[in-house]
Amino acid sequence: MDYVMRSVRADEWPLARQLRLDALQDSAAPVAFLDSYEAAVARPDAFWQDRTAASAEGGEARQFVAESPEGEWVGTVTVLIERPEDDVRFGEPAAVNQGHLVGVFVRPEARGAGVADALFGVAVDWAWSLSAPRLERVRLYVHENNPRAAAFYRRFGFVPSGQRTPVPGERREWELEYVIERG
């Protein structure tokens, strides 16, 4: 694998925007993201600039990308930091300081090449490297009808916590929480 895993830079918001728009057009998007292409493409540049800056070096979160030797972004994952005193973003409130993986996407042509493993490795390593706050676990949510993603998460070491939360705006569909505890 010749991909480089790295953090995004704030000035790369056009690339971050395009990768997100591409992800939202993927066949798995309806069960993988709580967003739609139509909503995302309508957002102003300032939204994407703020979002990218917040997850770049020095931001409150960290977005990692897999970059090809030609400079193409072929995958991404973002780590949000959640503390018990924070407002709930999604699912159950944080009982401990934790990371929350969101926005997982690998372009179809890069799937099966170890990109997702490498992205998760970098993301989880970064989460464990934090000392303020020191994270006790990392979590993510997966739609109950997304077995491909769930299988990858289990293979990586995440386990179902037993928590689930309703999919916003949907009836009788669930997002299942998976966690990996600090070793």
Strand order of the largest sheet: 1-2-3-4-5-7-6
**Which spans of ≥5 residues are poorly predicted at pLDDT below 50?**
none
Report helical residue fraction. 25-40%
The tally of strands reads 7
Task: Explain the overall architecture.
The protein is of the alpha+beta class and 183 residues long. 30% of the residues lie in helices and 29% in strands. It has six helices and seven strands. The chain has helices spanning 13-23, 29-32, 37-41, 45-54, 115-129, 147-156, and strands at residues 4-7, 61-67, 73-82, 98-106, 137-143, 159-166, 174-181. Strands 1-2-3-4-5-7-6 form a seven-stranded mixed sheet, with helices on both faces. Strand 2 and strand 3 form a beta hairpin. Helix 1 packs across helix 4. The two termini are 28 Å apart.
Itemize the secondary structure elements and their pairings.
Blueprint: E1 4-7, H1 13-23, H2 29-32, H3 37-41, H4 45-54, E2 61-67, E3 73-82, E4 98-106, H5 115-129, E5 137-143, H6 147-156, E6 159-166, E7 174-181
Parallel strand pairs: 4-5
Antiparallel strand pairs: 1-2, 2-3, 3-4, 5-7, 6-7
Concise description?
With 183 residues, the protein is an alpha+beta fold.
